[in-house]
Amino acid sequence: MATAASNHRDAQSGADSGGERSGASSRARIGIAGATGYAGQELVRILARHPAVTLTTAMASGSTSTPRAMPALARIWDQPVIPLDVDRLVRETDVVMLALPEAASAELAPTLLARGLRVVDLSGAFRLRHDAHRQRWYPATATLPDGTVYGLTEGHQKEIRHARLVSNPGCYPTAALLALEPLRRAGLLTGAIVVDAKSGVSGAGKAPSERTHFSENHGSVAAYAVFSHRHTAEIEQELSTAVTFVPHLVPLDRGILETIYATLTPGTTGQQVADAMTSAYADAPFVRLTGTQLPELKHVAHTNFCDIGWSVDEPTERIVLVAVIDNLVKGAAGSAVQNLNVMLGLDERTGLL
Amino acid sequence: MATAASNHRDAQSGADSGGERSGASSRARIGIAGATGYAGQELVRILARHPAVTLTTAMASGSTSTPRAMPALARIWDQPVIPLDVDRLVRETDVVMLALPEAASAELAPTLLARGLRVVDLSGAFRLRHDAHRQRWYPATATLPDGTVYGLTEGHQKEIRHARLVSNPGCYPTAALLALEPLRRAGLLTGAIVVDAKSGVSGAGKAPSERTHFSENHGSVAAYAVFSHRHTAEIEQELSTAVTFVPHLVPLDRGILETIYATLTPGTTGQQVADAMTSAYADAPFVRLTGTQLPELKHVAHTNFCDIGWSVDEPTERIVLVAVIDNLVKGAAGSAVQNLNVMLGLDERTGLL
Amino acid sequence: MATAASNHRDAQSGADSGGERSGASSRARIGIAGATGYAGQELVRILARHPAVTLTTAMASGSTSTPRAMPALARIWDQPVIPLDVDRLVRETDVVMLALPEAASAELAPTLLARGLRVVDLSGAFRLRHDAHRQRWYPATATLPDGTVYGLTEGHQKEIRHARLVSNPGCYPTAALLALEPLRRAGLLTGAIVVDAKSGVSGAGKAPSERTHFSENHGSVAAYAVFSHRHTAEIEQELSTAVTFVPHLVPLDRGILETIYATLTPGTTGQQVADAMTSAYADAPFVRLTGTQLPELKHVAHTNFCDIGWSVDEPTERIVLVAVIDNLVKGAAGSAVQNLNVMLGLDERTGLL
Amino acid sequence: MATAASNHRDAQSGADSGGERSGASSRARIGIAGATGYAGQELVRILARHPAVTLTTAMASGSTSTPRAMPALARIWDQPVIPLDVDRLVRETDVVMLALPEAASAELAPTLLARGLRVVDLSGAFRLRHDAHRQRWYPATATLPDGTVYGLTEGHQKEIRHARLVSNPGCYPTAALLALEPLRRAGLLTGAIVVDAKSGVSGAGKAPSERTHFSENHGSVAAYAVFSHRHTAEIEQELSTAVTFVPHLVPLDRGILETIYATLTPGTTGQQVADAMTSAYADAPFVRLTGTQLPELKHVAHTNFCDIGWSVDEPTERIVLVAVIDNLVKGAAGSAVQNLNVMLGLDERTGLL
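Predict the joint structure of the above. Result:
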């Protein structure tokens, strides 16, 4: 029963813009597979408003679903989500964003690559480089396709620019790596690292279960997957060091806050930490450093920002870092679009601020 | 400690846009007074990204505050909120958005008008046309300035287009009027109307109090201001009929859901109701009709949409309507920008989708 | 891995009590069928600590489940929930509390009655007296067994005292009837009644579904079952008048707040309303009248109280009442135990304060 | 407007008890100072129903307040909270529970002790034994009165039995110490300990502030007081080892979940850990060990239980423990009453199950 025309791209540019944006005819055509989950919906929301690419199709996770409308996205994206259709993806898109269960991604991504498309995969299927690790945590993925790049955008724009398949990082690793990478590269860390993560319930996915029931989470907090969460392997791969990682569900919808406990190399000062962080992110539009003022989750909800703060206790060589992201944006759909922008030679902020 | 350049308007338009947007030099210059409250922050957020106006200054509610940064808005609006300064508003802006306590608006708006500026006022100071009502509910407002228009955008674009002072509707009246106006105009309503409103706690404002304490609201619901909320007078003024209005605080941050109970004129069919609603909003980009599928609050959070659904019981001539808005967007800052767009001759969707 | 003895009834009575409470040998033996749902768990919690009855067995809803421990109730009730077993109920109990789906209750209750047990049923199976209404809303219930009493305790202690089957009221009707009954009996009401109810998500039951998913409720409110909720028939039956009833889910776990809109007979004063309410509940230990100070949901969470306040607008003959209960206590398990106390000749507060 | 008699102690014992409980005349008389805060309210709630002591008076934190009723406690405790009055405490009570700001406790406790009363203090004023530590964190407390005992009940019943002043542990230390003490005593721990704590907002107290505003916490998580929370000193005092402690506010009202990271001495097995925990709490009625099944906060809300689980990674000698309590019960009022029970020679469970 929705009414009113909705050519909102004109609206976004103001009354005086119209169709005169040069190069519109050469806009990249983007498809989404897995558009009905939480990350998929967020992809639709971002790409439908993206000023420099065209979302041509949003498909379900399977080929037998019936087309369905998305009332929450009326006026933003008025097309239905249609069944998965590889031929149509090949005909109508240049790049496909996969927001699928990892086994489905493991199967579909090589097919799409073979037919000439580029792919951003939001699942874990292609994140682990070592066969042994991948076989343990993502057994459906036999091999990594040539041209696969681990897509933590910050610092890896060059590889991502020409990647055929970008494997988008996990939500938990995104925050942990953005906080720790600069210190590791500067040689300021030593010894054990603890990552204590607090995640909103949307991180547990859209499938109804006892775990995602409102009454099981309201007024509660619970740790899970201690010593057994596969994001641990991903963080350890990128940091090349052992990490103790414990995720928790907290009673909110969107967002992750990670509290990270580490030891500094002897003599490291707070100023050295600040310098390492500042110089690492001098050109990173989505990393906001809050310094010794710790960041809060609400400041990044519904944004692609990762806010990072820290506190150093010089006498005891301890550091506590706090990093916050929106798990569905910087932890999934937003960073996927950030990677897409880089792949297409666009400013990485396009459509994300 | 924020880094990286943040000329995000370029980013919004993609890599190929740059500064070449014609007419940029003639963009309207907008100022905000009262930028630190919840509605004011939302105004900054929207106007900083607005593609067709320039936010030139964001000021506090008082002239004696010290400038302060807004960490949540870093990279979106990196200027500090400065003390209120009328001369500077006159020099640097064409239109001023007032997100002030009503007594402050009552005093400031006439001054700004007298000095040639146009004003959108988000307080209640100028909403009631009848002196007796205004003196009861907004005693600080002596008279309505000439050229004042009640700014429920939908259906009133013509008056708003040339208004000097647009008085933005209250959050509760916005949802109630959008739901009821089409039926009233079509002559389908008779008898008493009940508006039962459920609001998020941000509607109670940013000032800490027992009412806004987390622990007083978590796990609780409370009605307030029964028979004594001043939004009643505003709804009654616009509908020209008596209304029983009871607001409640529910444990969420943003959004209002109103359940509206009314009686239809004898013989009215569900189809007539649907026709009246559909034709009323055929050209309204921000009203989404969900028909007999009732709307949910989460679908409009962080948007300028008002979703409206209804259920008719023909044998008993009863109708229940449900309308949802984000109280800080369509209920405040979003509709203020929608009005601003109309005042400036822009597409009313500009910057709001 | 729970340790330590847990003879907590001794503990409850202090060090000096021990087993010397006279009459312990004649304590009524109580069983629960359906102990794993939210209302069933609450029954276990209350009855396990009840000082004057003995909870002998807690059974699941079906006869094929495997026994399971209840970690949340460790030290309070350390026995497992066992499969449903009618013979064992007959052997080991005097009264059975049924917290079952209504079709299961409809089948089981007559069997238990026939074998000499008394029953308190928490489902809707036996609430509607008129066959036509019952066949529409609870088609599994062919007839009402002899000796069935509608169990709104307040005011009906006499019938409940000797009932064989007490049909516990629905959660929504409990609050509505406690608020409206005194006014109706005093002849102070006229015309249409609107009951707008806000319920915590535990009211939707323990089964995982999209409706009960955390992310669908957090930050949201939704109306449901407009003109089609079967509690409407129950309220109308008890009030003998038509009611417009709309329930909503609000983002909290436990509790119901109802806002009730009614019209007073001409000339009714606020004092008459207060007198009617006060005299109706002079001896009701679980109804707390807050007068013109409206009640808040949090004050009754985890209690068996129903708090009721109201506001009268004498010139327009309108009244708004607000009633709050914990849907799992006064709206289910608590009122069931209150009825049990009356059936057993105990003080109705026993085990409930 | 509350009605109905409320001699609920009779009700608690069932219809057959009446006043015949022997020894009622020798029941200890208890007073509360600071009854209006969250912990104070919980004390009233528990003590008003306590079967073996008599709550004789509930006082405010200051001597100049006006008496006020507590609507949430109507029918449970119908007396008003009166101004603080030392002479009346001396006349009417045997033991006083102090739920005051620590500076007020520091001043009042010695006075009460000098006048012959026994005291349970819920503030931090008397928790730190070393003068240097106390002067840093609780400068208002000049000295520890003779007969002061740190009141973590579990394992310290003997000292508490005869203490004049019991200093109730902090909420965060309670969970941390209950989890770690058995392992420390068994010699199973080595190296650094990290305690990452997530607390409900009631832990921040009842005073309205930006920190406790609903909208600042809903949908958010924030760490605070890194390297500077005074509970660190308390945990370190009791464990005799350094601890990194970071508290967080999570968006719920009541409860604390602590995730504790530690290193086991080489060769320690999971079985040894389980044995140490089980034997430590064999006789502790309020510690429930969940073993490798991690505990969830909701299971202890509104109870005096501390649930503790853990996970051991034998190859890397790491252990993660998770402990949960209700911060207002086992973290404050509940453990204070548990201590009171021990001081009076009662079963420590009395009034708490």
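The radius of gyration of chain B is 20 Å.
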